[in-house]
Amino acid sequence: MGTALLLLSVYLACAVEAVEALTIVLAAGVTRGWRPALQGVAAGLLLLGAVVAALGPALTVLPLKTLRLVVGGLLLTFGLQWLRKAILRASGDKDLRDEAAAYRRQVAAAARVTSSKKPFVDDWYAFTLSFKGVVLEGLEVAFIALTFGANQHGVALAALAAVAAVLTVAAAGVVLKAPLARVPENTMKFAVGVMLTGFGIFWGAAGAGAEWPGGDAALPVIVAYVLAVAATAVWVLRRRRAVWAG
After folding, report:
1. Which of 54, 22, 55, 14 is nearest to 41 (CA)?
2. In angstroms, rounded to a whole number, what is the distance separating the alpha carbons of residues 220 and 2?
3. Beta bridge partner(s), residue 118
4. How far apart are CA 141 and CA 84, in angstroms?
């Protein structure tokens, strides 16, 4: 169960960020040209690969309790950030992410910028736009995949889930040649936030010396509890909005 939740968490987190990166790359490619946009993608992936190669072995040499404490803290940081935004979006207190609108904004911004040629790059703006999109959206996922994988001694499995998500989103983008506006991105972010927070609580407490009743069997219960708390928060915020509106 723990391994299945791990793979699902990494896959969903990577898919969400890949959808957002795809929107940026599509805007750069359609508006400015595909060659510099894809060069930026390649450079961004190389940088992410270097980060994973450098940090992966460093995490695996930490003592298990220290590793779990560090991993738990990182996952709680990421998870609560994702969950807070997801709760606000689900309650109506924050606008839902709209990939179609984000794509139109990126296209409009790209169309206003004049071309600037650099060595080996025909359009520097398209290159940097794609590069930053891939790196900024990918770094968080890289850390999530590394921390999950290192703690479960399954970096290869976590990396496989991340690669599978990227390939799925990339293939969909190539086929549709449009941003993936119909992907239930906000629901996926809610699920990822719940799972990351659950794993963070579980591993952080274990790293601090706590022993969960039932061992790993406690993890699904913790995730269910976080989901219940998040759903309750959404209900409370919706009720508050309804009262204020009335």
Report:
1. 22
2. 8
3. 121
4. 18
Query: Which SS3 state, helix, strand or coil, does residue 120 take?
Result: coil
Q: What is the phi/psi pair of residue 228, to 5°?
A: -65, -40
Q: Determine contact, residues 129/12, Cβ cutoff 8 Å.
A: no
Q: Within 10 A of 1 (CB to CB), how many other CB atoms are there?
A: 10
Which residues are paired to 121 by β-bridges?
118
**191-238 pLDDT, tens digit each:** 888 988 998 899 889 888 888 888 878 888 999 999 999 999 999 999
Please state at what angle helix 64-91 crosses helix 218-245, rounded to 10 degrees: 30
202, 212 contact by CB (below 8 A): yes
Residue 159 confidence (pLDDT): 78
Tokens of 73: 């803290």
CB of 10 closer than 8 Å to CB of 160: no
Give the pair of three-digit tokens for residue 30. 């359609």
Q: Using CA atoms, how far apart are residues 115 and 77, in angstroms rounded to an integer?
A: 39
Residues of the chain with pLDDT under 50: none
Question: Residue 97's CB: how many other CB atoms inside 10 A?
Answer: 19
DSSP 8-state secondary structure symbol assigned to residue 214: T
Rounded Cα–Cα distance for residues 146 and 154 (Å):
9
Amino acid, res. 71: V
Please choose, from the candidates 9, 16, 44, 1, the residue with its C-alpha nearest in 3D space to the C-alpha of residue 147: 9
Sign of the torsion formed by the C-alpha atoms of 83, 86, 92 and 93: positive
